[in-house]
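Technical annex, item 7. During the second reporting period the consortium partners agreed on a shared format for inverse folding records so that results from different sites could be compared directly. Each record opens with the tokenized structure and is followed by the designed sequence. A conforming record, contributed by the partner at site C, is shown below for reference.
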């Protein structure tokens, strides 16, 4: 189902228009296929996203190349053990998740734990994002840099689910299967990580004085939870008269965070790396 932001400035740029298996129209490999056929297809379909995953989790292009090579060579070695109980994509990303956890290094300034949730909630802030002004503010590079920097500073346990869901574009259930976690745990980490990323993005967006608080804090929290769950399911969240200007501003920046994250997921596999891997898989 197509998810909309509720604001026309995001129309046509929704992340829902882009899905991981739309890369080249080839069907996913099936269990029992020869590995010489299956793994090159997975390389074409998922190589770019795995390269982007490595850049954001392992630290730079060299580490990303190491990750891609390790994942596909391991997949080639283990393909005979794939029984089709999950999709080959889920199976491949499970290999990638384990490799990421071995290869990624703690970033400078990265905390061991997420800061208290209250620090990422904007309900009492003196200013808020000026949603109307976003139509005239198109500094995509500044937004991208703010989001990338914020992702790099997420604790490891939050960074991997966030990247798999928001950058790679996998459904929550698939992220949970890849990481061996309950869906509720993945959602909790996603919700907090989204708020942290949104908080960093907000700093480079146009501001205006906050409007008066329209209702009590619990109503705000309930609306925010409903919005996050809509993002998890990639469905519409209607902005009707119940939603005040403060929440509209918050929800619009959450949508924009998703748009920027999805743009980060458009990495291409370097041609020389692709050629080297295909030669080794031949």
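Designed sequence (site C submission):
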């Amino acid at each position: 189902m197509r998810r909309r932001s509720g604001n026309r400035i995001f129309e046509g740029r929704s992340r829902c228009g882009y899905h991981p298996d739309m890369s080249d129209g080839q069907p996913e490999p099936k269990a029992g296929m020869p590995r010489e056929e299956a793994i090159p297809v997975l390389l074409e379909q998922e190589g770019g996203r795995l390269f982007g995953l490595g850049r954001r989790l392992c630290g730079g292009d060299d580490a990303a190349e190491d990750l891609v090579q390790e994942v596909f060579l391991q997949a080639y070695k283990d393909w005979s053990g794939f029984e089709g109980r999950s999709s080959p994509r889920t199976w491949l990303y499970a290999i990638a998740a384990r490799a990421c956890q071995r290869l990624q290094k703690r970033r400078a300034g990265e905390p061991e734990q997420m800061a208290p949730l209250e620090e990422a909630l904007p309900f009492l802030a003196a200013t808020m994002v000026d949603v109307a002004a976003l139509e005239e503010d198109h500094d995509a590079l500044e937004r991208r840099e703010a989001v990338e920097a914020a992702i790099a500073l997420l604790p490891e346990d939050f960074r991997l689910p966030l990247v798999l869901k928001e950058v790679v574009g996998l459904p929550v259930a698939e992220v949970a299967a890849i990481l061996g976690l309950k869906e509720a745990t993945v959602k909790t980490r996603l919700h907090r990580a989204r708020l942290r990323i949104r908080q960093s993005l907000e700093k480079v967006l146009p501001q205006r004085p906050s409007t008066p608080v329209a209702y009590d804090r619990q109503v705000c929290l309930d609306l925010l939870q409903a919005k996050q769950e809509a993002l998890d399911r990639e469905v519409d969240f209607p902005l009707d008269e119940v939603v005040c200007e403060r929440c509209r501003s918050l929800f619009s920046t959450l949508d924009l965070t998703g748009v920027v994250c999805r743009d980060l997921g458009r990495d291409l596999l370097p041609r020389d790396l692709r050629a080297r891997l295909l030669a080794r898989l031949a």
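The first helix runs from residue 35 to 59. The radius of gyration is 20 Å. All partners now use this format for quarterly exchanges.
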